[in-house]
Amino acid sequence: MPQVLDVHAVRAWCALALEALGRDREEIDAINVYPVADGDTGTNLYLTVESAVQAVEAVFTGLEPAPPALPDVVHAMAHGALIGARGNSGTILAQLLRGMAQVLAGDVGGEVDHSESADGDSLRHALRRAAESAREAVAHPVEGTVLTVADAAADAADGHSGHCGDVARAAYDGARAALDATPGQLAVLGRAGVVDAGGRGLVAVLGALTEAISGDPVAPPGGRGVHHARVAADQSLDCADGEGPAFEVIYLLEADDQAVARLRTRLDGLGDSLVVVGGDGLWNVHVHVDDAGAAVEAGVEAGRPYRIRITHFAAGDAHATHPTSGSAPTGERAQRAIVAVVPGEGLAGLYSEAGATVVPERPGEVPGSGELVEAIRRAHAREVVLLPNDAELRHTAAAAAEQARTEGVRVALIPTRSAIQGIAALAVHEKERRFDEDVVAMTSAAGATRYAELAVAERQSWTMAGICQAGDFLGLIDGDVAVIGEDVTRTARTTLDRMLAAGGEMVTLVLGDEVPDEVADRLERHVRETYLAVDTVVYRGGRNSALMLIGVE
Fold first, then answer.
1. Digit-coded pLDDT (tens) for 110-162
2. What is the spatial distance between Cα 167 and Cα 454, in angstroms, rounded to a whole number?
3. What is the four-CA torsion angle of 89, 95, 101, 106, rounded to 10 degrees?
4. Could you give the 3-state DSSP secondary structure of residue 336?
């Protein structure tokens, strides 16, 4: 197991942190009572780390097959977090990652060569630099918050001189202990009976770091449970109504250090929860104010603000400009729309004909939550049904739905795991029905549809159906390998028989470009002759689609 922090460990750290925050997002949202009880800390942290992951993956993809150098990877991680930072907690996390990157890249702290990996000493210094830089970025630091948890992690790491894994584990344990103590340090947390949400997110990130270095998963932080936390947070929300500034303002800013120093002073006089992070000419500005226009004007005077986001706390909606999204839809909103992630041009056309706003899923490149949010905006509807059509997108889609809700859109997420299930949901969609009734009908249709995919094995490996060789055809039913074969038609037929053994009335086949028409003819004939009451419908998936998708409902 690796005991140094190299590029592969950093890449794994980012991926594991995103997975952990996706898993814990709702729990963290539920305990979000400070500085504003707006229930979005988990979502904001997830979106911030998602941006970091995308930046890191871009560095690896751009240099494949050669690995990038460690400075390139940690700089990408920090930059991605900076430009994607959301909310107070996400902005602070971006600065924490930036502080770590400065040390791990060798920008500060000596002349150690960090081109390949960093050792335990470097990780200790990185954690200390992270805590210090985050505290410096907050205009008025408060104890019992993520800043306290970051300090505790750095303090605990200072007491270890071993390998990176030992240092990371010590930091994680120190952060957990500090998190448990936050209700006694911040009155609003004590009244609500919860720990600090931002600190809870940082503990998840440090747990991911420990796992990435050591290879061993960490014990999750203790807690009161989502239900208890939600009740506590709701009570705190009731107490907080009408208190504090009305708006949260966030923007990226291109400006020099002197202009930012003046901006800090001006924004500090306008509101509270001021956090300004970044450097080298690019900054992320976060502040809570009553006069959102004045906060934006201050940014204009300091430099060039963009990606401006203004959230109205009391109304629960957002008024934002999105300069990177092109022209926003204008005119009256539709009442209801469907947004779906779809692999393949053929299926994209099918979904579009059914009235859905399509987000293309390219091979090896799943869409991010930002892309899903943009699609929801393009749909320009008061109510949106979101179909992720991929089990791996469940956390991403949930974060996108949460973000869209803050912008005043009613979003229902149907957890479709395949485009086949999405087709079944679309087939029963009726926009004239009440929203809840439509969602229930679509969810029921998707859930009643079993799905399978035919794929080609890339290498020899163990599967639930036995050992496959490179080039074998695999029949995956509900995500698990159930059939291994050397012929596409026979493999598909066997997969179909397995699925139809449990019954069914309709078979849906979606064929990729490389599958000839005669394969579909043979499968249709097999279903017609063997299962007399079962109908078959065939679609072409087109370019970028799977080899074959099979649905039985």
1. 544 556 778 888 999 999 999 999 999 999 999 999 999 999 999 999 977 77
2. 45
3. -160
4. strand
Rounded to whole angstroms, how far apart are CA atoms 341 and 486? 31
Contact at 8 Å (CB) between 541 and 511?
A: yes
Structure confidence at residue 169 (pLDDT) = 93
| Residue that the structure tokens 């805590």 belong to | 131
pLDDT at position 159: 79
Could you give the CA distance from residue 246 to residue 525 in angstroms, rounded to a whole number? 65
Q: Give residue-wise pLDDT tens across range 391-416.
A: 888 888 888 888 888 888 999 999 99
- Render pLDDT for 239-250 as a digit per residue (tens, 0 to 9): 444 467 888 899
CA distances from 202 to 131, 168, 206, 227, 250 (A): 11, 13, 6, 21, 21
Beta strands in 7-120 (DSSP E): 117-118
Tokens 């159930």 -> residue: 482
- Rounded to a whole number of angstroms, the distance between the first and last alpha carbons of the chain is 46
Q: Which amino acid is at 517?
A: D
Residues 6+ apart with CB under 8 A from 195: 31, 179, 180, 182, 183, 189, 221, 223
Long-range contacts, 499-503 (Cβ 8 Å, 24+): 499/450, 499/452, 499/550, 499/552, 500/527, 500/531, 500/534, 500/552, 502/450
Cβ neighbours of 327 (radius 10 Å): 7
Apex 399 CA angle, 248 and 293, nearest 5: 20
Q: What is the pLDDT of residues 482-522, one digit of tens each?
A: 899 999 999 999 999 999 988 888 999 998 888 888 898 99
CB 361 within 8 Å of CB 407: no
Distance CA 103, CA 510 (A): 51
H/E run at residue 132: helix 120-137
* Distance, C-alpha 219 to centroid of its chain: 22
